[in-house]
Amino acid sequence: MEVLFYTILTLCVLGILAAVILYFVAQKFKVEEDPRIDEVEKMLPGANCGGCGFAGCRGLSEALVKRDDISALFCPVGGGDTMKAVAAYLGKAAAEKEPQTATIRCGGTCEKRPRTNKFDGAKSCAVAASLYVGETGCAFGCLGYGDCADVCTFGAITINPTTGLPEVDPDKCTACGACVKACPKRVIELRKKWPKNRAVYVSCVSKDKGAAVMKACKAGCIGCGKCEKVCPFGAITVEGNLAYIDPAKCKLCRKCVNECPTGAIKLVGMEPLPKAPKAAPAAAPKAAAAAAAPKAVEGPATIALKASGTNPLMLLNAKKAVMESKADKSVEGAVVALKESGLKPLKYMR
Amino acid sequence: MKTFPMGGVHPQENKLSRAKAIEVLPLPEVVQIPLGQHIGAPATAKVAKGDKVLTGQLIAEATGFMSANIHSPISGTVQSVDMVENGQGLRQMMITIKREGDEWVETIDRSTELKRECTLESAAIIAKIKDAGIVGMGGATFPTHVKLSIPPGKKAECLIINGVECEPYLTSDHRTMLELGEEMLVGVEILMKAIGVDKAIVGIENNKPDAIAHLTELSKKFKGIVIEPLKVMYPQGGEKQLIAAVTGRQVPPPPALPIDVGAVVCNASTTYAVYRAVQKNMPLIERVVTLTGKGVKEPKNLLTRMGTPIQTLIDAAGGLPEDAGKVINGGPMMGRAMINLASPVTKGCSGITIMSGQDAERKEPGQCMKCAKCVSACPMGLEPYLLAKLAKKRQWEQMEAEMITSCIECGCCQSTCPAYLPLLDWVRLGKQTVMGLIRARMAAQAPKK
Q1: Is A240 touching B (CB cutoff 8 A)?
Q2: Is the CA virtual torsion A248, A251, A254, A260 positive or negative?
Q3: Which sign, positive or negative, has the C-alpha torsion B415, A129, B346, B30?
Q4: Is B330 exposed, middle or buried (0-12, 13-18, 19+ CB in 10 A)?
Q5: Are residues B333 and B235 in contact, defined by beta-carbon separation less than 8 angstroms?
Q6: CB-based burial of residue A174 (10 Å sphere; 0-12 exposed, 13-18 middle, 19+ buried)?
Q7: Residue A276's pLDDT is what?
Q8: For an interface test with B, which of A113, A125, A131, A135 has the most B Cβ atoms less than 10 Å from its Cβ?
Q9: Is residue A201 very low, low, confident or very high in pLDDT (cuts 50, 70, 90)?
Q10: How many CA atoms are closer than 13 Å to the CA of B209, on its beta-carbon side?
Q11: How do beta strands B91-99 and B76-85 pair?
């Protein structure tokens, strides 16, 4: 019994002694840290994804507190709202960015892009890309081993086994950009996130000439430039045999979608425009309504000049009339010109 | 018998074409010459579409010191200088030449008689080797003139000739030593003169007794050349392994080079090419390529002009076997599988191995069981299982700390793995990425100086 008593007593004394020493040591070596860092970290989503460029949320919150100008810092996961809240707390000006989502710019499904060989190495896009061109004839497209899905911390990317291509769940995607960095073929792009997850984009990154693209893949961009011509907003540029839709300029008018001969321009979350619209009666009232509000539009290209029952010559004439009406730059003028040419206007772009 | 001290494996040798004399492949009708077929900067094209070229004419010039000249292997008209798919399907700048007749540059001596005496000085020899565009023909394609230009402050003590040919299936060096042995030994003499040493060791693995006997007999006529039989062990043909086997010296990890331990290593075929370049003014426009494989009707050693489509070689050996699964540029250990048989033979292509049937397929990988067989097999003393794991997790800095840059990509780890893990795939990826990071870091540091 005595042994037990002394044991407990010794341990208690030792414990108290150690506590006292530790208390003074802790006072002596205390690290002064801005308490706001903890507060800001609490506001951040805590995903530690690295999308901001820092190793984790702690790194970003330190930078947010320490830097005077935080306009270069942005948390893609939290988005504009989080940044606003943080900025308000710190009394600084927040960076504003439109919400974005990762977009897979390759439409080469197993069906559209036949496999020409079999890869039996390590199942990784990075490994395959370092060794050779890939299992298909396309040197630019998705390899399909899912490096993007592996690095996604949010489970937003999955490889669809039937198409062999990754699919992004826009609701889960936070645009942290990890997949963009992981993709050795640079197929993934962060594009503007439209309401209801709508999107129009060129689902191809091949810079090959048209014939080579056609040989390798039936869904590739052949760089024909039809979309570039039809785009009323100048959002599409064709460079190096590849069309690119600038998300900042695109207004989702969907004209290019119908124009694309290979279906490389993808439309998500919306119905496509009717392919060959029937003659105008149904559309006429709309046209009139549009004409009633004389809003300047950029030239006559916005008017669809396809009408049934007109011969090509008439169409040409109508085109000419419309071209001439360009001078006054109004829809009204265009409609008048159309009427004079004996054609009915079909549809307007808003 | 000597060998290197650490790691290594002994795969089935399968030297099917060992007894086949070198055959001359008929001249190809069209050749494609890649501008980058050596380590270093790709050469700069000196011809344009429509130009007439002669056999042996310079068509692409070395870009800077670490690069090599390229000569036309046939005479004819340049059809294009454009991006063409290589064996791996990747685009590469290539010069395409269509053959017309067989006209040579006049200065080239095409006679076959032996020319023993070489009166040139060291600098002149190296200049001639540089002009001839000679690179290491064992597969690494390191420009030979760079290797021979000893950096100031360092001194070569010994020349080592690599006649090991440890890679299974391949026999091109073996046949070169056997059939062109005397020429090769003259090449050794020239190289000794170039780097200023009086001692040369020719390392040959013991599975080539005929070559060892032949060269030992011939070497009596030469001064300072020793033939050293070595125990059969892969990857003895690796530069550092051969130095360790022959001299017992260990080359420190990169950026150290063999010259830091006083050794200069040159491959047997390269040495023969040096003889031809210095004594006969013959640029590097042809080489012996082994076409082999268990399913191949007639495995052969073919003397082939550079740029010949690989399909032509396969046809010469009886066509592609029906059950062919993989056509490998190189041997089964270090070679790379090809998807484009229209791609050309290059300076570093010592053989084409066709794997058929089951041999061609990798087995389904399992789980690493930490048996550490890869660690004991690694001739560089690395831990391949760890490196593969780090590469998978993209921890490049950690890989650098684990000495990934020492890896010689010999494939011992993968061949010995009982779980059939694709270790080499990951390690290669890691090495490539880390080397890229190091280069980027050096480029970032350079302007500060």
Answers
A1: no
A2: negative
A3: positive
A4: buried
A5: yes
A6: buried
A7: 59
A8: A131
A9: very high
A10: 0
A11: antiparallel
- Is A132 within 8 Å of B90 when comparing Cβ atoms? yes
Of B90, B91, B422, Cβ closest to residue A122: B422
For all residues of chain B together, what is the average pLDDT?
92
At the topology level of CATH, where does A100-268 sit? Alpha-Beta Plaits (3.30.70)
Angstrom distance (rounded) from CA B220 to CA A49: 69
Give all strands (DSSP E) within A119-227, no chain letters: 157-160, 165-168, 188-192, 199-202
Q: Does A133 touch chain B (CB under 8 A)?
A: yes
Is A124 in CB contact (< 8 Å) with chain B?
A: yes
CA distances from B337 to B73, B355, B388 (A): 25, 10, 21
Give contacts of B426 with chain A, Cβ < 8 Å: 122, 124, 127
Cβ–Cβ under 8 Å, residues B227 and B219: yes
The runs of H, that is alpha helices, within chain A are: 2-28, 35-43, 57-66, 79-90, 125-131, 147-151, 178-182, 210-216, 226-230, 255-259, 284-292, 312-325, 331-340
CB neighbourhood size of A116 (10 A): 15
Residue B58 is given by DSSP the state: E
Query: What is the separation of C-alpha B274 from the centre of its chain, rounded to a whole number of angstroms?
Result: 14
A133/B422 Cβ within 8 A: no
Model pLDDT for residues B266-300, shown as the tens digit of each residue: 999 999 999 999 999 999 999 999 999 998 999 99
Please, which residues bridge with residue A201 across strands?
A266
pLDDT category, B407, cuts 50, 70, 90?
very high
Class of domain A32-97: mainly alpha
CA A297 – CA A278 distance, rounded (Å): 24
Nearest chain A residue to B429 by CA: give it: A127
Closest-CA residue to A139 (of B107, B432, B293, B85): B85
Instruction: Quote the ipTM score.
Output: 0.88
Q: Which pairing describes strands B286-292 and B300-305: parallel, antiparallel, or unpaired?
A: antiparallel
- Does residue A285 or residue A254 have the better pLDDT? A254
| Distance in angstroms (rounded) separating the CA atoms of residues A270 and A253 | 10
* Cβ count within 10 A of residue A320: 12
| pTM of model > 0.95 | no
* C-beta of residue B355 within 8 angstroms of C-beta of residue B324: yes
A253 CB burial (10 A radius; 0-12, 13-18, 19+): middle
**A242-245 and A236-239: which strand pairing?**
antiparallel
Measured distance CA(B186)–CA(B271) in Å, rounded: 9
pLDDT (tens digit per residue) in B142-153 = 999 999 999 999
Side chain identity, residue A74: F
Q: Interface of chain B against chain A, CB under 8 Å?
A: 85, 88-91, 336-337, 339, 361-362, 392, 422, 425-426, 428-429, 432
pLDDT higher than 80, residue B441: yes
Report the Cα B234 to chain-centroid distance in Å: 15
Alpha-carbon Rg for chain B, nearest whole angstrom, is 21
What is the mean pLDDT of the segment spanning B415-436?
Answer: 94
A-B interface: how many C-beta pairs under 8 angstroms?
Answer: 43
CA–CA gap between residue B281 and residue B133 (Å, rounded): 11
Of B29, B208, B6, B11, which Cα lies nearest the Cα of B102? B29
Amino acid at B62: A
Mutation site for A-interface testing, chosen from B88, B429, B431, B432 by largest number of A Cβ within 10 Å: B429
Chain B residue with minimum CA distance to A138: B89
On whether any CB of chain B is under 8 Å from the CB of A130, the answer is: yes
Residue whose tokens read 């993968």: B414
